[in-house]
Request: fold
Amino acid sequence: MKYIIRAVKYFFYFCILLALMLGILILTGTAEASSIDTLFKDGYNSLVKIAILFGGVSAIYPLFGFQKKDAVIPGEYKEIRGKVVEYMENHGYKLETEEGQNMTFRSRSVVNRIFRMFEDRITLTRTISGFDVEGLRRDVVRLAYGMEHAARTPEL
Reply:
């Protein structure tokens, strides 16, 4: 269900981006907007083709845009919890929920949350070796490697 919701969000996100770009082109006088037929070569048929393209990309993107990665952080949960929360807070995230040894974080920046369509949640699920970090691919990779490095670096 989460996958379908993400795909629908991305479809509307792409449609809004197209509308914004067309609006800018019309306002600057680069494109004539007397009708859809003058704006697009095939008129309404072009809109259908664009919608199909956006639907295809939106259906595939969540598969590649989100990931789960293992972050190897040795130690007991009580020992590493403080370091993990501090690391996440230093990188713009706040603790949203904590259930047992699992934590979820959300971005503190409203602008980041909007640009990521409120898909900014990072979920840390406790494993034997540390945590499974789940969320947007670019954030997961950056945060997982950063937490591993912070856990290995002795405090000065």
